[in-house]
Amino acid sequence: MEEALAQELDSLRTRGLYRSPRLVREAQGPRVRIDGKDYLCFCSNNYLDLAAHPEVKDAASGAIMRYGWGSGASRLISGTMELHTALEKELADFKRAESAILFPSGYMANLGVISALVGPGDTVAVDKLDHASIIDGCRLSGARLRVYPHGNTGKLDKILRESSGSPRRLVVTDSIFSMDGDLAPLEEIARIARQRGAWLMVDEAHATGVLGAGGRGAAELLGVEEEIPISLGTLSKALGGSGGFVAGSSVLIDYLRNKARSFIYTTAPPPATCAAAIAAIRIVRRDAVLRESLISKSDRIRNGLAALGFDTMGSSYHIIPVLMGEASHAIEASDALFRKGILAPAIRPPTVPRGKSRIRITATAAHTDEDIECLLEAFRDVAKSSAALHQEVRANVPKK
Ligand SMILES: *Cc1c(COP(=O)(O)O)cnc(C)c1O
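^ inputs. structure came back:
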């Protein structure tokens, strides 16, 4: 077995696709400690710097002292504790929904919800750039998976017309796309889904806590919250903790509690994670300045990168892809940034398509103006060396 596995790993290495984690010491924040050195972290989803926020830490440690660490069982056996239901109520309130259900992670939420809502004989339509957890949920469901080109609502409409014989049809889209940072045309998607009698789920993983005046997500920003019957989010990005959730009607949530296998057949999350999430949601609800600051910092970074000649791929909020092309170029750039004290890993296939490898920059509300200057300075060097690289390549092309 090891021989076959090692061979595959070698093949990843030669293609520049091998990955290994960097070990971060001490808490998550705009600066992280790696191998005894401080780095500016421009790749975390800890957008509002809540992962180590004093109120969040206090809530978690207080909950551990009162409720202990573990929850002892799955939710439907004896694992549902006060804090689980308190969090679900807080989430429903926050999202202005009738009800909400908590999952151990956003990944598990997608697996559970999609496979509970559709099955063999049904059709599920997804955007080409939807998150891997959505695709895995679709595969698990056994429903017919139809993929439409990124943001192409005409093609979505066609898929829904063609699948009118399916008993259930479900459309699933990211709201802000995790690797490209652009928004799905939610209004148009909602209109098409309604018109064709399909169900609609929007995954607000990267938008929860960040977008919209109340931080409720892209649907709020675009004024279409009422049009989204199934709204999924995570507690693991802007909210700085871990967990996933779905907000919607009481009937939907009751159904999921009875049918979503990744809710039923797993141990309830530790109650302290719920206390931390409640504290984080309360910060988001009262502190609009935090997300405004995140967005204005993101704009400064994007504009700075564009001025240096980088392609930020039509992103418009806090996720800023910087296109490098080949995986090897993205790795070179990421290594160069690392040498300059910037942590921003290369994103490569299979996470993104071939030829679209990139550095993915994410700001946090806690980055200072100086941090942003440092980042842009480091990219200035990347721009120079890659220009030099291209010249070299050109010089080597034989003249006719
Ligand atoms: C990160 C992400 C998830 C998974 O959420 P976790 O809580 O990290 O498991 C799901 N969907 C999208 C779009 C994401 O970006």
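The pocket of pyridoxal-5'-phosphate is lined by residues 105-107, 110, 131, 133, 174, 178, 203, 205-206, 234, 236, 244 (CB under 6 Å). The CA atoms of residues 178 and 206 lie 7 Å apart.
thumbs up if we can close this ticket
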